[in-house]
Write a structure and sequence with these properties.
The chain has 9 helices and 8 strands. It is an alpha/beta fold. It has an 8-stranded parallel sheet with strand order 1-8-2-7-6-3-5-4, sandwiched between helices. Strand 4 (115-118), helix 5 (124-133) and strand 5 form a beta-alpha-beta unit. The chain is globular.
């Protein structure tokens, strides 16, 4: 596993190479004003995500790693395609899931990418129906994802990205089983884990599902 520990100060003067990004994503970044203050984790992680590498993004809260992940998904998926989801993002709570979707709406507003949030308190059959109506990015809590998978509520044939946000919280809450279950069924997919700090259980994930992952750690 390649491991890079980066001190944010070293990247203050380094700028994101916008010319190499999807034009619609660049427009979303500029509209949101993010181009004026890129975070170190964003500058560092985007080339890795674009390359298709498996990735750990470890950085303190507020460092911009979730935004980096969303930028990466938009860059990789580019536009709406067929009905089955191509990215699944697992996060720790309903509130976090809707916050992610809000950021997708901001950064991806110049694209036609479709997102949907599935959460524990929602009506399971309704959420299954919405998934099958067609979407590109499914954002969900671990428990609800497990329930959807158990009733064949998420077609996996097109999934090319599996992402775990707030990974240390998800793993601590013993939700790794659904991560393994989905990962084991994917032939070719990019795996990204985002966390505030490294957790010892990440080593098991590394051995089980990651392929020569790169670890980016911002201090």
């Amino acid at each position: 596993m390649a491991f890079f520990t980066i001190f944010a100060a070293k990247l203050k003067q380094q700028k994101m190479k916008l010319k190499k990004l999807l034009p619609e994503l660049v427009s979303g970044i500029i509209d949101a004003g993010f181009d004026k203050d890129f975070k170190a984790i964003q500058t560092l992680s985007m080339p890795k995500i674009k390359s298709g590498a498996d990735l750990y993004c470890i950085a303190p809260s507020g460092a911009g790693k979730t935004t980096a992940m969303i930028m990466g998904v938009i860059q990789q998926l580019k536009e709406a395609f067929e009905e089955a989801p191509r990215a699944i993002i697992i996060t720790s709570s309903k509130e976090e899931a809707f916050a992610l979707e809000e950021q997708f709406e901001i950064l991806g507003k110049r694209t036609n990418l479709r997102t949907f949030v599935a959460f524990d308190q929602g009506i399971l059959q309704y959420q299954k129906d919405m998934v099958y109506e067609g979407l590109d990015v499914l954002i969900c809590t671990p428990k609800r994802l497990t329930e959807l998978v158990n009733i064949n509520g998420v077609p996996m044939t097109k999934v090319k990205m599996l992402i775990v946000d707030n990974a240390e919280t998800v793993i601590i809450n013993s939700s790794h089983a659904i991560i393994y279950r989905i990962a084991d069924g994917l032939k070719k997919a990019q795996f990204i884990l985002s966390a505030n700090k490294w957790h010892k259980n990440f080593n098991t994930i590394d051995e089980r599902i990651m392929k020569n992952p790169i670890t980016l750690e911002i201090e």
